[in-house]
Amino acid sequence: MMESLGKSSSFRRTVLRNVALIWHDVRRLWLTPFGAFLSVGILLLSGFFFFQYLSAYNLRLAEFLASPISQPAKRPSLHSDIIVPFVEALSFLLLFVVPIVHQRLIADERKDRNDDLVVLAGISNRQYVCSKFVSSYLFLAPLACFPLLFPVSLFWFGNPEFLPFLTSIIGLLSLLALFCSLSSFVFFLFPVRGISLVMSTFVLLFLYFFHSLKNILEPSSFWWVSEFSPVLQARPLFSGVLSLSSLYFFIGFSLLFVFGGVLSFDRERSL
C-alpha cells in the first residue's frame, strides 16, 4: 500500500515538474518582444495573402457572372479559391517561423547551459525533449490559428462550408506538429548554435518541396514520393477531406522525430 502511494506521489511530482517546465517555456516566449514581433509579422503577412486571394476570387466571380449562358464558366468557390490557398500559404510561412522559435527555445537555452539545470532538477532527457516539442507546439498553434480569423470573416459575408474549413484547420495543425517535431530533432542532432537554425530551415524546405522530385525525376520510379510528402498528405485535409491515412502519417512521423530527438539528446549527454 505504501509502495503504491509512493509511486503515485512520484508520478504526480514528475507530471507537475513537466507542466511547470512547459508553462515556463510558453510564458517566456509569449511575454517578450519576440512573441509580439512574431504575432504581428504573421498577421500582417497572412492578411496580405488573404486579400490577394480575395481579390482574385472577386475577379473570377465577375468573369463567371459575365460569361454567356452558352459558354458557362466554372463558378468559383470560397473554400477552394480562398481558404485552401490561404492555408497552404500560411503553412509555408510557418515553415520559416518554426526554426526561429526553436532557436529561441532550445539553442539559446543550451548556450546559457540552462538545460543542465533542468536535468539536475529531476527532468529526464526524454521528458526534456518532449517538453520542448510540446512548448513549441503550444506557442505556435495559436500563432497559426490567429490568421484564420481572416477566412472566418467570410462566414459573415458569404456562405463557405463549415466542415471543410474545420478539416483545413486540422490539416494545418497536423502539418505544424510535424514541423515542430522535425525541427526539434534537428536542433538536438546539431547542437551548435547557428548551424542548427540553418540546418532546420533547410530540412523543412526540402521536406516541403519533396513532392517536386516526382515531377523532376521519372514519375514511375518515384511513385513513393507522394507517400512520404507532407504537402501531398496535407492537401486532402486542406481541401476539406478528413483523410485518416493523412492523420496517421502526421501522428506517426511526429512521434518518430520526437523519439529521434530523445536519442540525439541521450547521445550528447553520454559523451
Can you tell me about this structure?
It is a single chain. With 271 residues, the chain is mainly α. It has one domain. 81% of the residues lie in helices and 0% in strands. It is built from 13 helices and no strands. The protein has helices at residues 2-30, 33-66, 78-111, 114-120, 125-145, 149-152, 154-157, 162-189, 195-208, 213-216, 225-228, 230-238, 244-270. α8 (162-189) packs antiparallel against α12 (230-238). The longest helix has 34 residues, at 33-66. The chain is elongated and about 75 Å long. The model has no long low-confidence stretch (mean pLDDT 83).
Mean pLDDT: 83
Number of domains: 1
Overall, the morphology is: elongated
Helix content: over 70%
Element pattern in H and E: HHHHHHHHHHHHH
Which labels suit this protein?
single chain, mainly alpha, 81% helix, elongated, 271 residues
How is the topology of this model organized?
Elements: H1 2-30, H2 33-66, H3 78-111, H4 114-120, H5 125-145, H6 149-152, H7 154-157, H8 162-189, H9 195-208, H10 213-216, H11 225-228, H12 230-238, H13 244-270
Helix pairs in contact: 1-5, 2-3, 3-5, 3-8, 3-9, 5-8, 5-13, 8-9, 8-12, 8-13, 12-13
Question: What is the gist of this entry?
Answer:
This protein has 271 residues and is mostly helical. The chain has helices at residues 2-30, 33-66, 78-111, 114-120, 125-145, 149-152, 154-157, 162-189, 195-208, 213-216, 225-228, 230-238, 244-270.
